[in-house]
What does this fold into?
Amino acid sequence: MNEERFGEMAGQLARASLDSWRAGNRAFAVLHCGIGCEHILKALLCHHDPLLISEKGDRAHRFHALGFGSAPGVKPLAEARTIGITEAFRDATVFMNGRMPLDERGFHPVAVSRNGVAHYAHHNDESAAEVVTLGLQVIDAVRAELCLDSLAFWGEYQSVFTNLDKVADLPSQKGPGDRPTIEGAAEHLARHEGQQVISELTAAAQTAQLVTSWGAETRQADVQETVARTTLIAALLTALGSSGYRIKEAVRELLVAYDIVPYAFPLEAPPSPPEIEERARTAVMVKVVLASSVGSAIRRAHNEFPALSIAPLLAEVSASGRLLADRLAKPGARLWWHQCPACGYAGNVYGDLDPRGCSCEGEWDICPHDDRNEGVGSIEAFSCPFCGLLLNHSAELAAAGVAPETAVPADAFPASG
It folds into this structure.
């Protein structure tokens, strides 16, 4: 995308964030705002030089931006990789020359929301309001820097976007029929699933405590500790596996009901890239909101059973890499992982991410690729064994920020295998 397209999308996302806040859909307001921030920041960088948004080591975007997109060996623009929101904010701050309303530390909650770990969206209205307020401040400051018309950018929210209480007091927007919007349906479903998950984790913890008490008096203390730990891990992972599967099915049914997926279209009416992007972005937001209810339930279970240290225990299991297993991988293939955008634990990356040799022909001395590689391979899907988040379309992976550059080989875990 170019400056104009980034700016246009930022306006749409900023208004979508306010629409969501107005409807009471706090999680979606946070997610829309975070992505809108990233787009407006990249619009500013493109205004100065499109190369500024190229990810380190990226070749596709750089050569296309310079007008060499059709040159031999240059990958299609669809495979271009751009910088993330934190780096975009850091670089945009330079060009704002003191006019950016936040420093990098103050912007951190917004960056976290963009990266999908929806801590703020699931705490309470106050923390969600903080993220949205900060994000909108940055968006408007950069909008002014780009001289984008305020009324065209903010629409009906021009006079109230700085006051979320006033936004919430606006008359509700009526949709077709009596069916709730997909955002409202997703947040309602997330609350319902969250209650189920906390019940399942509570039952798992209680069962683990009961089972480990059997014969405890006959075991030495260190053995008893190992038994209790192993039993608790098994009980928790069983509960999470069950809830994750159920949430995946609930997400699929919701997205199908609202005609977001499948992405297949008749050959005579192929979709435009913006249409695919919009549908994928909606799908990712719905998936993240539902899956992050598991992370919220884990924190609640941890607080209910403080002596069991449930959250640190699961974090340790995640860091060990023992749950990483790519069921789609060929025998002997190297496994990869990526931090889950919904719960923050380690999830499976499906695909071939090893370095790919370039396809340049002719003289090697004019090959534009470092070390004769076009970069790493591609990700085909992502699946989290903890919260059940499944991203199985290239546009979803891009919208969620799951990129090959940030994937890590599973054998990098000290305790993997």
In short: The two ends are 41 Å apart (CA to CA). Residues 292 and 342 are 5 Å apart (CA to CA).
